[in-house]
Amino acid sequence: MKRVRPAAGPKGINVALGVATAMGFMGGFLYSYQKSSLRFWGWEENVREQAMNRKEMDARAAAGLPAYGEPTMDEAAQAAAARNSKFAALKFENTSIEK
């Protein structure tokens, strides 16, 4: 067997490599998810989206419209939604209601 597969070692190494690969994929996914969230929040520079947003907001202001449209929820629901979603992408833990 050593001639066919010289790198084949003890059985435990295959499990360890599988676990390390799975952890690497999960860590890479979480890293890229967090990086994209930082970009959408504006914590990292994103010139193209900033220019598009500026153009849209200037057009809405010139037309006399509110910046982000008329709200469809009451203020209490808006406040609850803001509290629940603020920095949600940074919370990689179980945040169940029953703590």
Automatic annotation (TrEMBL):
It comes from the Eukaryota. Residues 1-45 form the NADH-ubiquinone oxidoreductase 21kDa subunit N-terminal domain. Keywords: Membrane, Transmembrane, Transmembrane helix. The chain crosses the membrane at residues 12-33. Signal peptide: none annotated. It holds the Pfam family NADH-u_ox-rdase. InterPro entries: NADH-Q_oxidrdct_subunit, NADH-UbQ_OxRdtase_su21_N. This is NADH-ubiquinone oxidoreductase 21kDa subunit N-terminal domain-containing protein. The lineage of its organism: Eukaryota, Fungi, Fungi incertae sedis, Mucoromycota, Mortierellomycotina.
